[in-house]
Specification:
The structure holds two protein chains of two kinds.
Chain A: H1 10-14, H2 20-67, H3 75-91, H4 96-115, H5 124-143, H6 145-148, E1 154-155, E2 160-161, E3 164-165, H7 169-190, H8 194-204, H9 206-211, H10 216-242, E4 244-245, H11 252-265, H12 270-294, H13 305-323, H14 328-341
Antiparallel strand pairs in A: 1-4, 2-3
Chain B: H1 3-34, H2 41-58, H3 63-86, H4 94-116, E1 132-134, E2 137-139, H5 141-163, H6 165-175, H7 177-182, H8 187-212, H9 222-233, H10 238-259, H11 266-278
Antiparallel strand pairs in B: 1-2
Helix pairs in contact in B: 1-5, 1-8, 1-9, 1-10, 2-3, 2-4, 2-8, 3-8, 5-6, 5-8, 6-8, 9-10, 9-11
The chains are: A mainly alpha, B mainly alpha.
């Protein structure tokens, strides 16, 4: 049972990690993250990289959709903008640590443009508008061959950072984890500022927020720009990670994947974003393992893998919406509450 | 492009727009009745076509009976979907309901993929293919006749909503559920009926489209392009869906005529963005007025 948790100074009240136990757990988590690629092996490191990239992108979508309440079905397209920007810059000799923020900035600009309709419309209409943006940007990715390489795709050279090559998954892992950590910290602190709280206010009721003196025009566009910035950085990392990028990577399916991730994790929570993105990234891999086990018994089980994945994906979305609408974060909180209050019942 | 080709493309576009109107009608019915955009519409279309294929090609039923059986099955699926997925989520935020229909679509899509595999299948011919020749203008028969199927179906539904008591109850429940409920209309039942009608309308469109092209799970993606039609016509206007279907069909055909097949997918979404910037509630939709 947790007792004696009093906040006696302002510094203590503002701290991100309040109790020593929390700090100890966080330290253990960071150490585990740092040691992971040396323990986990190649395949798990690869998966961890991918999950980290998904976490960054899902965090961006959660800023726009979960916190600011603006539904976006075009998140993958913003990742594409970031990715192709990074690819173009990298192939023109711009170093990695400049290309990464520039890719994010370019995506943010795209987000500003796509966010303009949000000033007049919301809800389902906005969903359709961002869907249109997704398809139009996909069209650009396919047809603007000098920059995007068309359907054949574009190659990106391995990134260099401080003279070290980031060609290996292990090196990329550290870059992804550090980037994700920094962006998570930024997002965490954003919601203690006026801007972050304004996001939440326009989600809850935009007209009321406007009456309270929040500039809707600026706040909505800022939400789109910020969310797209995250997407752009994630896209750029994905580009450096895969090294070959085709328009197929940034399809509507990926946008829906991120929406599913924030719904399964928990909308409007950062921890939920991490849980959801990791969960949704790992479920297909678990399914693949299960199916390959089954193929010992039933030889053509492998052919069923992609339909089964799709069914499970849909069932997860629908199931969470109906039975656990607050997402994995709610399960997490329940477990935590149990231990905090133990030996008393919740 | 000379006038003759222009006329030909225009006619093909207008007649092709009939099917767009039909699918759009499926969207509009559900939106009017339950304030949901059904992103699983494409999967309903696909499922309808697969049921017809199964009944006709595998079970060797006559065509009319297979279509009837397929519609009955779709009605059953729509009923289940409404009861198991949409009703528990009524009153939830827009994004939950939207994502539920997307998740549902993924489930149906995966199921179809697992049962019938992803290959192209040969659909029985539902509408005559014989091309029609008026002077020098040639119109494919499949598109011409599918247009009239769409017209007949839309007319039948319009008459139903106007003259039967169930139809009138459905309109009442759509325009003001609370009052309708107070007046003794079973709103839940009308919502179920709405889903059944919309599912069947979509399934008919799916069968025809599959019999014109070919049957594969890719059929479901055609429904997303129809979003342009309902945005242009107004989400809750049946007349809007019909007129906008013809306009979008015509614009698509003309754009393909001028710029080649690549732009076909682009046209509906460009229309969507323009409409949403200028007139977000569409040509005939009701303007939302919000109170605090």
């Amino acid at each position: 049972m947790r007792i004696g948790d009093f906040r006696s100074s302002y510094a203590h009240d503002e701290a991100l990690l309040v109790t020593p136990v929390q700090r100890a757990w966080m330290l253990a988590f960071v150490l585990a993250l740092a040691a992971f690629p040396w323990v986990g092996g190649t395949y798990l490191t690869y998966l961890a990289c991918l999950t980290g990239i998904h976490v960054i992108a899902a965090m961006g979508l959660n800023l726009v959709t979960g916190y600011a309440g603006q539904i976006s079905l075009g998140h993958a397209a913003f990742m594409g903008v970031g990715c192709y920007t990074a690819a173009w810059l990298a192939n023109h000799g711009v170093p990695f640590f400049i290309a990464l923020p520039l890719a994010g900035t370019m995506s943010a600009l795209a987000g500003l443009v796509v966010g303009i309709p949000s000033l007049r419309i919301k809800g389902l209409y906005l969903a359709v508008a961002t869907l249109a943006a997704q398809f139009i940007l996909s069209f650009v990715f396919r047809e603007w061959e000098p920059v995007t390489g068309g359907v054949r795709g574009v190659n990106i050279e391995a990134a260099q950072l401080f003279g070290l090559s980031l060609g290996s998954d292990r090196a990329m892992y550290y870059v992804v984890v550090v980037t994700a950590g920094l962006m998570l910290l930024a997002a965490r602190n954003l919601f203690r500022t006026r801007v972050g709280r304004a996001f939440i206010a326009i989600r809850d009721k935009d007209i009321s927020a406007e009456v309270l003196g929040i500039d809707l025009f600026r706040t909505k566009l800022l939400a789109f720009a910020l969310g797209s910035f995250y997407a752009g950085v994630a896209g750029a990392l994905m580009g450096y990670f895969f090294r070959v990028i085709t328009p197929e990577h940034f399809s509507l399916g990926l946008s829906i994947f991120y929406l599913a991730a924030i719904i399964v994790g928990g909308m409007g929570t950062l921890l939920g974003t991490i849980l959801g993105a990791a969960f949704m990234a790992l479920v297909p891999e678990v399914l693949r393992g299960a199916v390959s086990l089954l193929s010992g018994v039933a030889p053509n089980a492998m052919a069923l893998l992609s339909p089964v994945r799709e069914i499970v994906f849909g069932a997860l979305i629908v199931g969470f919406l109906i039975f656990e609408p607050h997402g994995l974060i709610e399960i997490w909180r329940r477990v935590r509450r149990f231990f905090h209050l133990w030996p008393f019942k919740t | 492009m000379d006038w003759l080709t222009f006329a030909e493309f225009s006619l093909i576009g207008l007649f092709g727009g009939g099917l767009l109107s039909l699918v759009a009608l499926g969207f509009v019915l559900i939106y009017k009745g339950t304030k949901v955009i059904n992103f699983a519409m494409g999967e309903f279309m696909m499922l309808g076509a697969y049921f017809v294929y199964t009944a006709h090609a595998l079970l060797k039923l006559p065509l009319w009976l297979s279509i009837a059986a397929a519609l009955a099955c779709i009605a059953g699926v729509a009923l289940l979907v409404e009861r198991l997925v949409l009703r528990p989520l009524s009153g939830q935020p827009v994004i939950s309901v939207l994502m539920a229909t997307i998740g549902l679509g993924a489930m149906i899509h995966g199921g179809v993929d697992a049962i019938w595999s992803g290959q192209n299948l040969e659909m029985p011919q539902i509408v005559p293919r014989q091309p029609l020749l008026w002077g020098d203008v040639l119109v494919p028969g499949s598109i011409f006749w599918s247009f009239w199927v769409a017209v007949a179906l839309i007319a039948a539904l319009t008459l139903y909503f106007r003259f039967t008591s169930t139809g009138i109850a459905m309109r009442a429940a759509a325009s003001d559920p609370t009052t309708a409920y107070a007046l003794g209309i079973d709103v839940r039942r009308t919502q179920q009926l709405t889903w059944i009608f919309a599912g069947c309308v979509g399934a008919v469109a799916g069968m025809i489209i599959a019999s014109i092209n070919s049957l594969s799970p890719a059929l479901s993606s055609t429904a997303l392009g129809v979003l342009a039609v309902i945005i242009l016509g107004g989400l809750d206007s049946i007349a809007g869906a019909i007129i906008a279907g013809l306009i979008v069909g015509w614009l698509e055909a003309i754009a393909v005529g001028y710029f080649g097949g690549k732009v076909r997918d682009l046209v509906p979404y460009a229309i969507v963005l323009v409409i949403l910037m200028i007139r977000p509630y569409g040509l005939f939709g009701t303007r939302d007025i919000e109170r605090l």
